[in-house]
Specification:
Phosphorylase Kinase, domain 1; 2 domains; Transferase(Phosphotransferase), domain 1; 12 strands; 10% strand; nucleotide-binding; transferase; globular; single chain; alpha+beta; five-stranded antiparallel sheet; 504 residues; three-stranded antiparallel sheet
Length: 504
């Protein structure tokens, strides 16, 4: 018999001491909280009425599933998801994350003095995370600075996997997109104006190249106003593409436009970016090759001489391809009830005892006592009501909180504990079925990699312990709260500032 108190307002929900609203979005509210069991600051995101539109619910399902399957220090991780009182009637979900302090968009926007070591360290982590997801046959499809989290020590993480897709070897090569894919400024040229395309991991490599260029020059490289303008900006720098490269562009009108374009010569990157280190420009040119076949894979890019002295191949793990069974739902038309059941099944992954009941077919469909979600509903309603009375938003508020919240780097001890927990689950899985055993083995392997990478000595070549002044963190991006006395400081006092690259 399960422990009743675990599900009451004195159990699961009381683990988190909610503090205040730190972000709002079109379908969610983010609150900062303290995990009373560990003392950690966390972000809890309430997503409202998620089944109102099946497409939105499917995107949430896709993201929470991928974040469960992708265990890597360069990818945001979910800590917990609250168990709803009724698996057949719930409308909201509450997802718990550790806090990250900012995102790359804010880092670039508020810092005009980033140093070469920063550029190198950021790009290395991005490519390392990309290698991991690409070897698992996952394509992110929406990489941009706002979807990359940043911490005080310049740790970065990929987030917002709602538009990601898993590719399978026997799947059709033409992928039809019914949702928005890749913000235009970071969209690969072969995708411009296209809603159907044969796509490869090279689309993510292009996006990383655009992000890297933005780090180097402090502003977007290709800020196109529309598809035609986007192609103009790209060809102004890279020159007119070859006929073979044009043939790989998915949209017919875009192909005709490129074919009729006056011939342009490419601008040497050294002339376009005269202040940038030559080794950085060489890898940038590789990432921004017009033809996707000319772009390196993430693994090939990690071997570039640009990372000499920083790269450590042992800390650049691959991932086994994700099982097709995990994403079988992508192949069929789903109702809101279908997606609700699939999301509930994902939530149970964070509630092992309830998962056992579910797999045995004895899952309770309703709780006659308050669930943790019931308490959270009251607390969030109170917070939002108080937040609405503020004439001016606090600097902590993050209004663009459409993606899942920001999470900080796990400590090695925390990750090690996860490995120990998974060891016991591995033996249980062996009794149940070969499929569960394989899934458990993959999770345990991923956690071992995470421990090794967290303990790694991989740092910028300067050997610094921190690249970002931790006492000057901007508190506007779902970060841990600062004292009231700091809230009245001048804007300069909360601006993100990177510390000098020096030995400490």
């Amino acid at each position: 018999m399960l422990d009743k108190e675990f599900f009451t307002e004195y159990g699961e929900a009381s683990q988190y001491e909610i503090q205040e609203v730190v972000g709002k979005g079109s379908y969610g509210v983010v609150a900062s909280a303290i995990d009373t069991h560990t003392g950690e600051r966390v972000a809890i995101k309430k997503m409202n009425n998620i089944f109102e539109h099946v497409s939105d619910a499917t995107r949430i399902l896709r993201e929470i599933k991928l974040l469960r399957l992708l265990k890597h220090p360069d990818i945001v991780q979910i800590k917990h998801i609250m168990l709803p009182a009724s698996p057949r009637e719930f409308k909201d979900i509450y997802v718990v994350f550790e806090l990250m302090e900012s995102d790359l968009h804010q880092v670039i926007k508020l810092n005009d003095d980033l140093m070469p070591e920063h550029h190198q360290f950021f790009l290395y982590q991005l490519l390392r995370g990309l290698k991991y997801i690409h070897t698992g046959n996952v394509f992110h499809r929406d990489l941009k600075p706002k979807n990359i989290l940043a911490n005080a020590d310049c740790k970065v993480k990929l987030c917002d996997f709602g538009l990601a897709r898993v590719s399978f070897s026997n799947a059709p090569s033409a992928i039809f997109w019914t949702d928005y894919v890749a913000t235009r400024w970071y969209r690969a040229p072969e995708l411009c104006g296209s809603f159907s395309s044969k796509y490869t991991p090279a689309i993510d490599i292009w996006s990383i190249g655009c992000i890297f260029a933005e780090l180097l020059i402090g502003k977007p490289l290709f800020p196109g106003k529309n598809v035609v303008h986007q192609l103009e900006l790209i060809t102004d720098l890279l020159g007119t593409p070859s006929a073979k490269s044009i043939a790989r562009v998915g949209n017919e009108k875009a192909r005709k436009y490129l074919s009729s374009m006056r011939k342009k010569r490419p601008i040497p990157f050294s002339k376009k970016f005269p202040e940038v280190d030559k080794s950085a420009l060489r890898i940038l040119e590789r990432l921004l090759a017009f033809d996707p076949k000319d772009r390196p894979s993430a693994e090939e890019a990690l071997a570039d001489p640009y990372f000499d002295g920083l790269a450590d191949k042992e800390q650049e793990p691959s991932r086994q391809p994700i099982s097709k069974l995990e994403f079988e739902f992508e192949r069929r038309k789903l109702t809101s009830d279908d997606v609700r059941e699939l999301i509930y099944r994902e939530i149970l992954e964070y509630h092992p005892e309830m998962l056992k009941e579910y797999l045995r077919g004895t899952d309770q469909t309703h709780f006659v006592y308050p669930s943790g979600v019931d308490r959270f509903k009251e607390q969030f309603a109170h917070l939002e009501e108080g937040d609405g009375r503020n004439d001016k938003p606090s600097p902590h508020h993050r209004k663009h909180a459409n993606s899942l919240p920001r999470e900080r780097v796990c400590t090695a001890d925390e990750t090690d504990n996860a490995v120990k927990r998974n060891a016991s689950s591995l033996s249980r899985a062996a009794v149940q079925s070969p499929q569960k055993l394989q899934a458990a083995e993959e999770l345990q392997s991923a956690n071992r990699n995470a421990v090794a990478m967290q303990n790694s000595s991989t740092k910028p070549k300067c050997g610094t312990r921190t690249l970002l002044k931790s006492d000057s963190i901007c508190a506007s991006m779902c970060v841990g709260l600062i004292g009231n006395d700091r809230q009245s400081s001048k804007a300069n006092d909360v601006k993100l500032l990177f510390s000098p690259i020096v030995e400490r």
